[in-house]
Write a structure and sequence with these properties.
The protein is an all-alpha fold. The mean pLDDT is 84. The protein has five helices and no strands. The relative contact order is 0.15.
Length: 112
């Protein structure tokens, strides 16, 4: 017995929906996302951003104060707590590398 055509496309539809959800979460944090970014790239990127945010909070940072609204510059309490911006020509791998370095710097930063 064969499956109806509608069920064959469900995994692709689900993947697209989840990918767009993750992209939206990243954009809401001010992270640039491109069509070149694969679903796996976006998952790794979200993990790195969330790790950075946890590090900021563990050092007494306030994400509401330290992360500016989308497409604006922030005035964080501490410049170490500002999420690095992704450059237009930067791959996810390059940006992740910078994010993890920034996360390590925040973890080493003196707690407020």
């Amino acid at each position: 017995m064969t499956q109806p055509d509608s069920t064959r496309n469900e995994p692709n539809t689900d993947l697209a929906r989840v990918t767009e959800e993750i992209a939206g979460r990243l954009r809401a944090r001010g992270v640039e996302v491109t069509d070149r970014d694969s679903p796996d790239d976006l998952v790794r990127l979200l993990e790195a951003v969330e790790a950075f945010e946890r590090a900021v909070e563990s050092r007494g940072g306030d994400l509401m104060m330290d992360e500016p609204p989308t497409r604006s510059t922030g005035q964080p309490d501490d410049v170490h707590f500002l999420l690095p911006k992704r450059a237009a020509d930067e791959t996810v791998a390059q940006y992740n590398e910078r994010l993890w370095a920034a996360t390590a710097a925040v973890r080493a930063h003196k707690r407020r």
